[in-house]
Amino acid sequence: MNGKTILHLLRNEILLELRQKYALGGVLIYVTSTILVCYLSFTRIVHVPTWNALFWIILLFAATNALYRSFHQDTQGKQLYLYTLVSPESLLIARMLYNMILMLILSFLSLVTYATFIGFDVLTDANTGMFITGMLLGAIGFAATFTMISAIASKTGQNSGLMAILGFPVILPALLSLMKVTRFALDGLEWSSGSGSLLILGSINVLVIALSYILFPYLWRD
Amino acid sequence: MLRHWWKILATILVLYVVGYGLIIEVPDLPRMHESIRNLFYHVPMWFTMLLLLLISVVYSIKYLRSRDPIHDTISIECINVAILFGLLGFVTGAIWGMYAWGAISQFLIREPKSLASIIGILIYLGYVILRGSIVEEQNRAKVSAVFNIFAFVLFNVFIIVIPRLTDSLHPGSGGNPGFSIYDSENTLKVVFYPAAVGWILLGLWIMNMRVRIKKISMKLDQP
Known about the structure:
The complex is a heterodimer of chains A (222) and B (223). Chain A is an all-alpha fold.
């Protein structure tokens, strides 16, 4: 594994994505229509925990949908081609980095759309720095976990349902600490109140990335 | 005969626990009363489940290194038996909680330990579905071994993280005193320790038998 290969793979992923814009556009439309459905059912939410929980649930489903493709779109031929060219570790790290960028963009765009529709009253006296930090760590965690789950699910030849079955129970520890820290941030509490949860979130991310790094080569070798 | 000493021990211990556990004088505590006898069933079920899950992960790691189908068989049978013990632990806990804490809806989702057990059962049912959806045997063994290791680590994270996020009604957590204060005269330990060993041995025995049945059917399938 080396940095140059990873960068090449990352560039390749981004180029592919920009060439077939419909996939990225599909995810964005998915999020927007989900938010629209929520808007039509709730109109405005002023209750902070509900606002927060709904946002993360929408993002969770968007993440499953967006990251489902990361290993499913490879054809048998492309897999074999990549297999002969690069080490599995480089491929995994490149895909993870790409998915992290994707998730970061997706979560910021979702936040803007969500706040516009559902109301940004709750954001007025929020601790914005802590919210953004939580969101960054959360997006990275979603990306890392679902990249690995996507790699596992892609070996089955099943549809995206398996992603949710395998992924949701596994992502819960990260999701719960994430919801806790962002709720604190929305309530406008100090950094010290959320630092414990942020630390847990960061450690879970490191753990997931390390675990995927160790396990992925076994998975990829056919 | 000597090879089977642990099976005899398991039988004796479980019979002793079921029999003597009902006769023994238990400390009469407010709220608990006679329901404290559930200690001999509820807690050992979790011990057995966690031990079986641990063995299963060890064999998953072994499988990834050796590609020996027997390691995969042991791993999946450990999980099958662990799911059974997990469900039993959940049911005994729910019954106990009904008497000690009130209506099930009051504690089931707020109690981090029952939440963790629901998540655990979901993870491992997901594992069973994952196995079911792959036809080719070697591929199935490999993919499920990877998922098993991944899920076990995150399940443990869940068990460690969740109690720090919420309060618990269980003894020894959430500011509650540990269980030992309920058993000031050590009367319960006389049955509890044998119960833990007995149920664990019984779980291993069931697992062992299931593995042997699988081995026989694998031999029979070979031409």
